[in-house]
Amino acid sequence: MLSSAGRRAFAALARPTLRSDVAFAFRPSPAALRRLLSALAVLEQRDGKLNAGSLSAVTAAKQLGGSVHGFIAGSNIKAVAEEAAKIEGVEKIIAVDNPAYDKGLPENYAPLLVENIKKGGYTHVVAGTTAFGKNVMPRVAALLDSQQISDITAVQDDKTFVRPIYAGNAIATVESTDAVKVITVRGTAFPAAAVGSGSAAVEEGVDPKADSPTEWVSEDLAKSDRPDLATASRVVSGGRGLKSKEDFDRIMLPLADALGAAVGASRAAVDSGYADNSLQVGQTGKVVAPQLYVAVGISGAIQHLAGMKDSKVIAAINKDAEAPIFQVADVGLVGDLFEKVPELTEKLKKAQA
User: Environment class of residue 127 by beta-carbon count within 10 Å: exposed (0-12), middle (13-18) or buried (19+)?
Assistant: First the structure.
């Protein structure tokens, strides 16, 4: 029979000992990680119609690997929400019906988004690099105390993204450790998500009805029956070489109609008053990547190349054989644009007759 001292010694030996030099790590499986990820794709609407340009955000959100929900707000939103529910790969549409959000004013739209992000517990918020996205998303990031990841062109994993910097002359790979990652995507880098076969549920979102210090007064939009510049498969752009607005319209518009193309312009042409600023292609304008891009009277400054160099085929017409645009062009024609472009337009019309 053990003495009391012996029993204490035996108990000490039997008691489990915690060792400070042993580390225990729990690593969730990739499938478990995917279940933890959830992305909110911010969809845009205008006058009761879904903006196709924002569908690239859905494609990028799907590449993150988790569940994807869509968000949309505005007046009489039911029809647009039902259309958005048909987007492939979206599990749920969060809709807020309030005319205060029709114009996407960041002062009240950002608090609206933040409330719905917190309610849904989303790990990623994705929007297009559009005028709307550039207005709203930085404010959303600030309210969430996150650093925005802007204008991405690729998703490597749920926390690592690729984006161009220095007007596209360098490519940065960015890794974020923020709890909520706020992302804008370059529309030309991600194809628009298909609408048609989806069957997402539509759920009413939270509306904080935040006061806005600003109000929408009016807008003056340039309307055209031609394809939308941001999504067109063919684009013809004019530059400073066209010399005047009258010549710009006389030369470029018939060429665009003959090709069934959208019309663009360089910053120099816009600053000179030849074209509306909504037509500007470049670093401070629209970024396009059509199947065919025709540059007429454009020298090829870095600022302009940043907005169109991802085009599949680039054709340039310029009288200066040393113009930088010829360094990126697949097809080049050296000559007087006032002679060559009308000649090209006539040949296109005859080919279509």
Answer: buried
